[in-house]
Structures are given as C-alpha cells and as structure tokens.
Formamidopyrimidine-DNA glycosylase
Amino acid sequence: MPELPEVETVKKTLESLVLGHNIERVTVRWPKMIKRPDDIHEFAQLIEGQTFREVARRGKFLKFHLDDVTIVSHLRMEGRYGVYEASEPFDKHTHVCFHLDGDLDLRYRDVRKFGTMHVFSKGTEEDYRPLSDLGPEPFSDTFTVDAFYQRLQNTKRNIKATLLDQTVVTGLGNIYVDEALFQAGIHPERTASHITKTEVEKLREAIISTLSHAIELGGSSVKSYVNGQGEMGMFQQQLFVYGRASEACKNCETPIEKSVVAGRGTHVCPNCQHK
C-alpha cells in the first residue's frame, strides 16, 4: 500500500500534469469505488465542467481541489493515476477516467479494485469521514513530543500496532513503521505506554527523518508503486530492515529477523532493537 512518501510523490507529479485542466466528462467503469455520492451519475455531474486547481495530500489520501468540490481519493493497495492521450485504449484495470481538455485523460488504474473516491463541497472535506478520523500529520506543528507521548500512554497495544493506527499519527504504513522503529532502537513488540518520553522524542525524530528522506527519493517501489509519471521510487535501496530478512544489519551485522506483529510482516534487528 502506498504510504505517505509515495502519496506525496504522486501528488507532486500530478500537479505538473493536471493543474489548470478542465474535466469535460467522467467515465466510471467500477461503481463500487465511488463512495460519496453513491450514485455514479451524481458523482459525474458534480465534477464535470470543473477545473483542477490544486492537488493536496492528507495522510495517505489525495485531495483534488476543483472549482467548487474536492475529490478525496485513496489508492489502497495498488491504485495509481496517470495522464494519457485520449486516443489510447483503456486497459482492463482502468476503472475511473476524467476526460480532460486538450484530448487528455486522467485515468485511475487499480488491479485489485480497492481504491475509493469521495466528493465533498470544497472546504468541507476535513469535516467528514474518511479525513475527519485522521491523526496529526508527521510534519505538522501538532505532532509534538508531548502530544505523541500522551497518545502512546493511552493505549495498551504494542508500538507497531499503535503506529499503524491512522488516528495516532497519519501516513505511516508497514514499511516506514519498521524503518522508524529501527532508527529509534525500539522493538515493535514493546508496549506503547511503556516507552519513555526520551524514547518517544527519538521515535518522533526517526519518523520525520525517515519520511523526509523517502520523499526526497520519490518513495519506495517495493511492489507495484510508481508516481504519476510512471517512475519508480528509489528509497527501497536505503531500507535498513524492511524486506531484508536474514540479511546482515547495516549497523551491527546481526541477521535481520522477520515475524508477524500486529498482523503484519515485521522486520527487526534483535541486537539494535531490544524488547
């Protein structure tokens, strides 16, 4: 699933491709993706004739700000956007198409069909689900050590499960949770409320630095992720633990171990990350 760095990279690439373009027509080939409104004809009517004014991000969600409405889109497991010549035939995985002026299409492709789209009156999208449930952005002023520490104090879950909870801090998924915990020297099975404030400060810094570095490198193309221009990310070459089971730790040469924590495949250095 694309995480914050990947979605941020998609946002940046789409800005250069769609801003200023008018949506002349909308084609929905998989109605189940459209969550609000639940009628695809109403969905199309709200969007047609509108112009792309801004592409933004909230957590793992893309926000397409048009003239009067905002489209909130989640890529889920394998969703991707791309701009194509209108004459290019659809492939079988293209499920939503925004037909633009200039004989261009913004197409949403999704092999697994898990992606979602909501439309809200512009400026109200943060007042409703799914965005209203999200916790602070890792780069925001509200993601302070004190606030983060208090959130961890209020749960009995392990730290891995807690960081995957988008209401605690938004944008983190399996890859960057594993990487941030490694950088902070914290074992994923540690109970979140038992982590000291000093450790929380270190973890917060690790989250911010890991995500920042990943954004600089265009995200991680571990599976099928590409940006809005079809380009792979490069951060996977910098990973310390994720996807490196049985390989030597880059810090201490201890073999990286893989297990299941919080229902997810989890990578850890047993020497650098103590329980």
